[in-house]
Amino acid sequence: MLEAWEYVINHPEKLAGWTLDHLQITFVAIVIAVILGVALGVYITGKGKEHIADIVLYIADIAMTTPSLALFGFLMLILSSIGLRAIGFLPAVIALIIYGQLPILRNTYTAIREVDPAMIEAGRAMGMTEKQVLFKVKLPLAVPVIMAGLRNAIVLIIGIAAIAAMIGAGGLGVPIWRGLRNARMDLIIVGGVSVSILALLVDALMSRVEQWVTPKGLKTR
Amino acid sequence: MIRLDNVTKVYPDGTEAVKEMSFEVGKGEFCVLLGTSGCGKTTTMKMINRLISITGGNIYIDGVDNAKIDENELRRSIGYAIQEIGLFPHMTVGQNIETVPVLKGWPKAQRKERAEQLLELVGMAPREFIGKYPSELSGGQRQRVGVARALGADPPVLLMDEPFGAIDPITRTKLQDEFLNIQQEIKKTIIFVTHDIFEAIKMGDKIVLMKDGRLVQYDTPANLLYKPENKFVENFFGADQAIKKALEEISKRRQSE
Question: What ipTM does the predicted assembly reach?
Answer without folding.
Answer: 0.87
